[in-house]
Structure formats: structure tokens, C-alpha cells
Amino acid sequence: MFTICFGKYRHYKGGEYEVIGLAKHSETLEDMVIYRALYGERGVWARPASMWHELIEVDGKSVPRFQYLGN
């Protein structure tokens, strides 16, 4: 299993989310992050941990896809 802090995160596009669980994909065994939007319909989503932790380029700068905000 991988490590990630539970709590609130801000997506680089501005939305806030809460990590609510960790899982493995049932067929590929890929590590997944389970999270809930803290706006709108508050949908629950799953994303590969490799994407959760990656840096992306925005306006020529490397930024984290999700920035940890705390509990």
C-alpha cells in the first residue's frame, strides 16, 4: 500500500477535495486514492495514486496536481 495524508486538498484548478480512503484496483492492483468533492454534489471519485502525487505544468511552472491543506 502507498502513503498519503488524509484530509483536505486543493486541485490545481481550484476545487477542494477530501481524501476519504485508499484502495487497490480490483484487476490491476494499482494503488488508488478515494476522495470526495467539497463543493456541488459532493461526488466521490477514485484516481490512481501515481496521478495524485504527480507534478504538472501550469503556465510554465511545475505544481502539484493536489496541494495538501491539512485535516
Helical proportion?
A: under 10%
Helix/strand/pairing category: mainly beta
Give the mean pLDDT. 94
Q: What would you call the shape?
A: globular
Strand content: over 45%
How many β-strand runs? 7
Task: Provide a count of the helices.
Answer: 1
**Largest sheet features:** 5 strands, antiparallel
Give the radius of gyration. Answer: 12 Å
For this structure, the quaternary state is: single chain
Please report the distance between the alpha carbons of the first and last residues: 21 Å
Uncertain regions spanning at least 5 consecutive residues: none
Strand order of the biggest β-sheet: 4-3-2-1-7
Taken in chain order, the helices and strands follow as EEEEHEEE
Describe the structure.
The model has no long low-confidence stretch (mean pLDDT 94). The protein has 1 helix and 7 strands, in the order E-E-E-E-H-E-E-E. The protein is 6% helix and 55% strand. By secondary structure, the chain is mostly beta strands. The longest helix has 4 residues. The strands form 2 sheets. The protein has a 5-stranded antiparallel beta sheet. It has a two-stranded antiparallel sheet with strand order 5-6.
How would you briefly describe this protein structure?
It contains one helix and seven strands, in the order ββββαβββ.
